[in-house]
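Budget justification, computational time. The allocation requested in the original proposal was used primarily to generate structure tokens for proteins on the priority list. As evidence of use, we reproduce two of the resulting records. The first is shown immediately below.
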Amino acid sequence: MSQNSNNARQNALDYHEHPIPGKTATALTKPTATAHDLALAYSPGVAEPVRAIAADPADAYRYTNKGNLVGVISDGSAILGLGNLGALASKPVMEGKALLFKKFANIDAVDLEIGTQDPAEFIETVRRLGPSFGGINLEDISAPRCFEIERALIESMDIPVFHDDQHGTAIIIAAALTNALRLQGKSLDDIRLVLVGAGAAGTATLNLLSDMGLNRARLRVVDRVGVLHTELDDLPSHHADVAAETDDRTLEDALKGADVFIGLSAPNLLTPDMLMSMNERPIVFALANPDPEIRPELAHSVRDDLIMATGRSDYPNQVNNVLAFPFIFRGTLDCRASRITPAMKIACVEALAALAREPVPASVLSAYGAADLSFGPEYILPKPFDPRLIERLPPAVAAAAAADGVARMPYRPYPNATGA
């Protein structure tokens, strides 16, 4: 291991250990300076909101933190790019997610690591925790179990349940693709799209793009077995749904004449020859982390008509879930939506894409040390520290919730929603 790698590792460990272990803590929101304060906070005063909530459960949103509290929940079966390391090892990631909720949308979040990887046990545990929270963010759960878990929880709970590895990723990819297609003069309903990696994020991405008008007849999906095609037997349901009637069998076959490559797979799968075989003005989203399916330097040396995105912060056009999940939850909580619908996801996509086409505020340029950022091949998504995200995305999501009939109250922005 290099000296730089040793330093990076130690810096990360020190960050998590000092000055106190972990990344989150409890903050008090009411005065506690006098005996009278404590009598209101606990006995006997606390009996009054208890009686009110027993008479009308909706009063939990008036008298407790339920309406601004999200459970960030994992079983540790698919931690980042590290794999199945178990519930306890996932805790730093879940704490980190809670930190991002608070920082970007002033949402309080509690990380919960569930000590089972049996889907039925996990579902029942989370369902029983439901009264505590205004929403559930599932995280780092492997496919295909994650589909069963999310579906069952959505059906059995009256609060929004959102698996960010699926839908957060899909929203950012869809927003980036919306703008890349605009720049390349192409349309979603007419492109040939190749997706590599039909796991949680890939499946959700295809479902969202289909809702937005993707022509599935022109889609090719590649997984470990090669191109998913209708002559393959015993495909899991999420693979069978995207199997094509085609003679293509390899990634090389599928990419000939393709307009878009979306990689959610492994490093260095996309070769220069494959890239050269794509259609004019190609779009390449190489999102494997930390090493993409093709390095941007190599890709741009092969094609000068390319628009490219990665999952990395050290290249332009980072596909970063923090652009979506705090804000879609903020809008959802602020209209007390019972679930997150496809239309709410699309509203988030459209608001994100539109924001990237606007002039960038000076505060954002300063935060990123940039002299200029403007809509174009190297700027197709807003930056996470753009203060307009909290202004634009939540009301767009809430408006879609109201149109879909899942909002239980008019949208009302949360105080100081810009967070910590």
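The second record produced under the same allocation is shown here.
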Amino acid sequence: MKRRVLLIYTGGTIGMEKNYETGALVPFNFSNIFSKIPEMSLIECEVSVKAFETPIDSSDVGPEEWKEVAHYIEENYEFYDGFLILHGTDTMSYTASALSFMLKGLRKPVILTGSQLPIGDLRTDAKENLLTGLYYASLYENEEAVIQEVAIYFEYKLLRGNRTLKYSAEYFDAYQSPNYPTLGQSGVHLKVEKDFLYRSPADIPFTADMHISRQVLFWRIFPGMTLDYFTEIPKMKVLILQVFGSGTIFSSAKTERTLRKIRDNGTEIVVVTQCISGGISFGKYENSNIFKRIGAISGHDMTAESAITKAMHLLDNPNYSGTFAENFALNLRGEFSNMINR
């Protein structure tokens, strides 16, 4: 039985080709993708294409585009066995994280991929990423999808979407999942690490929850900075602080007074680490106890991209009962490691 895959093209380098008169990269008509990659016809799946009316650079992708992609998946969920989203690389981890929270009860593969070089380039990585992305998006065993979550496939590796970050603007191997194992790897054989795959609870039906709030602010702490201007910023509903190591910040009384004032104004504070690997552990060092005292929320070992999009999805979302802090502490889609849940 041939599986049906919906290929959703949003924009990005993978859909570009060089204008040899000007030397500039320009989008090509994506309905011609089959002539660009004739090998697609050799894969044991039927591919349909849905392209954004105007392809956009991934730096312009945000909540409205996340909703558009989620809507495409929702309205076509019953008609396709899997979904492959072609996306620019710069914000792909944000989109993958956002979709992981928006798509509840997912039991089909949603794979994102892109490329560092355009599809017409002689040394392009686009063809391998697209073709193997299709394989993963159509991979079934015993009439059940092997991948049932939002994942990124890039340069031979399949990674959980809400655990990824882009760490290189130059190398083909552009993405890492520092706090979670690789879900699969493409070599001579298509490998899947089934023990690491996410499964939605059986009692949760598939739905697309489009709620996204923009009342979230992200700030990276650095040595010598002053927090005075925090109290001058118009009230934000969630402040995500990216702090040192396992959760430390400069420990002056003024720091605590400032952060407490923000909390007293009703702002939730989420704490994530600046380290690529590892996570937050309140109480490990004295300089992290300030966050316990003010009632901040641990971001565990989540990526910044995942923490930001999770906060945007949960904030003021009427589809969740309980407080923001209670819901943020839940491991909703495998976005943090339970072993670090303190």
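A brief technical remark on that second record: The CA atoms of residues 73 and 314 lie 20 Å apart.
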